[in-house]
Structure formats: structure tokens, C-alpha cells
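re the bet — no i am not wrong, look at it urself. input seq straight from the record:
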Amino acid sequence: MFLFDEVDFVQTQNLPVSDLWYFLPFGYLLTILIEAPILLLGLSSKLSFKQKLLCGIWLTACTYPIVVLVLPTLLFEYSRSQYLAIAEIFAPVAECLIFWLAFRNQHLLETPDWIRSLTAIVVANLASFGLGEALNYYGWFGLF
């Protein structure tokens, strides 16, 4: 057994695209509920509460549709473990890049602030992944 291959999970990448669209708003809101508090606490204290909250909403808005709609379509025939590896590496890397692009020219953050903020983004993604896997195991609250 390699990671989750043998477990009978709902395989998001094998759902019809219409189901993925149906799931998108629910999953997005749940992801924000998980990630935003982590970012509020974890992002650099040099960022305002409003900036942190906006990051919690905006970073997920940039990557979540790709993880939920695009990658499952592209990786339709791939195993769940391959899909998860690609999606869960893509999301934090892309969000860190977007965060860096947004704040790099503001001269607001110094090296320790960047490390703290990028780490918080990765931790937030790991937390939402972990809870998402737990919810998937127990049946997506009956949605799928």
C-alpha cells in the first residue's frame, strides 16, 4: 500500500466535473475557515490584521480552483497518491510565490518575517490538507 492507494476514499480526481463545481464553494469556505486563523496567527506581525485576513481569503482563492477543478481534470487517470502529491505541493508553493509577489516591493518584511510568513502558509496548507483528508475519510459530510 502506497499512502492512500488501497483505501476506499472518494477520489476527487475521478468525480464528474459537475460534482467538482458543486463541491468548490463548500470546500473553499471550509479551507478558508481552516487556513485563515493559522495565517492570522502565523504571518508576520508587521502585516496588519486586514492584510493577514485578506491573505487568508485571497491566497486560497488563487490556488483552490486549480487544485479542485484543473488538476483533477488533468490527472483523471492518475492514482490518488499522485494527485495528492502534485496538488499538495502545488498549493503551498504557489501561495508562497503569490505572497512574495504581493509584498516583495513594499520593503515591509525582513528575512525572519519572510521565513515566518512562508512557513505559516505551508502550515496552513498542511492543516487544511489534513482536515480535508479526515473529512474525506468520513464521507465529506455526505456531500459525495
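see?? Residues 1-10 have pLDDT under 50 and may be disordered. told u. also Residues 18 and 70 are 13 Å apart (CA to CA). so pay up
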